[in-house]
Design goal:
With 402 residues, the chain is of the alpha/beta class. The protein has two domains: 32-268, Type I PLP-dependent aspartate aminotransferase-like (Major domain) (Aspartate Aminotransferase, domain 2); 272-394, Aspartate Aminotransferase, domain 1 (Alpha-Beta Complex), CATH 3.90.1150. It has helices at 24-29, 40-57, 71-82, 96-107, 125-135, 155-167, 187-190, 216-224, 236-243, 255-271, 273-293, 320-330, 358-374, 381-394; strands at residues 13-14, 63-67, 88-93, 111-116, 139-143, 145-146, 151-152, 171-175, 194-196, 210-214, 309-313, 333-334, 336-337, 346-350. The strands form four sheets. A seven-stranded mixed sheet has the order 2-10-9-8-5-3-4, with helices on both faces. The longest helix is centred in the last third of the chain and has 21 residues, at 273-293. The termini are far apart.
Amino acid sequence: MSERLAFSPSEILLLGPGPSPVHPRVLAAQSAPVLGHLDPEFVALMDRVQADLRSVFGTNNPFTLPISATGSAGMEACIVNLAQPGTNCVVGVHGVFGERMVDLCERQGGTVHVVRSDYGKPLDVERMLQTIREQKPGLVAFVHAETSTGVLTPDDEVRAIARATHEADGYLILDCVTSLGGRRMALDDWGVDAAYSGTQKCLGVPPGLSPVSFSDRAMQAARDRPSRCTSWYLDVNLLGGYWGGERKYHHTAPISAVYGLAAGLDLVFEEGLEARFARHVRAARALIAGIEVLGLSPLVETGYRTPMLTSVNVPDGIDAKAVMQHLRAVHKIEIGGGLGSLAGKIWRIGLMGHGARLTSVLRVLSGLGDALQRQGETRDVTEALRMAEAVHDAQDRTDSPA
């Protein structure tokens, strides 16, 4: 009988669009003894996780829970419960994940009106509002922080879209996959009806769960729909029976993944939400200061950049893929490339969760400078590191740990 070697992955600093670095406490939590999915100890942990997710989402929605699947299932859960054949939908698209929303609405038989912006540009809010007023949609959807580009829609614009949606008697779905845990969320204040995220980005937990939240209004719509939800697994009425007071068996939850999420949320609240958000902003500002010294430029205009993910334009004549391969092989760093129309044109650098730190910024700047020099580009790496550190340290540190 031949001996099988255990899988031993390399230690790679994950600075791409996700997954992000995982804190050792989260990894340790996931190795704890497994309980049954209806065990009273596990049920108590489920309650705690739900309460913590409400705080991170900025909501009092009773239906707030992690779906047993990745963020794409969260997107699908929101759409399959609120859309059906004939639903009039307005979807804002300014990146790859907005395109997925369109696809899912069409698969549900919805009539989809797409408000499209170039990848890397902000969501066209004025056209969104105009289209909502004209079409009176039953469903409106867009991505809060577009993972494929690094564009963030500001709070006041989210609120304006929600207000227009409700005036049309529709429901607003918000993709929070990249933003949750990395910046302030306020679902109730903004007027969002359904939102979803993933654990593998700013929450700093391995992939496998998708936090979702439905308002009471959205839950009522899911209960009152004329036909049953087309997905048994993602039917919020059935999921609510398992995660709510009934504790009615629906599926076997990924016990260890929930342990990990609980530990990740513990870290969030030990640090403090505002301190955590400030740490992400400091790291992003330091990164941008450094890349500009390296002669690189951000894709997204000021005012619409998400601090959790920075897209960097690839200079003319530079092999984007070779830079990424060099970072992985030599510096043990993973960054992401462009998707869709931006393939080969940008790098995506994620500073999320446990990875949103000055040490991460300095490592990736050093690696980028080295990779560019390997392609014949002269860059002042020392000055880039100095500038990044200076910008980071100059920011207000009184509300966040080092």
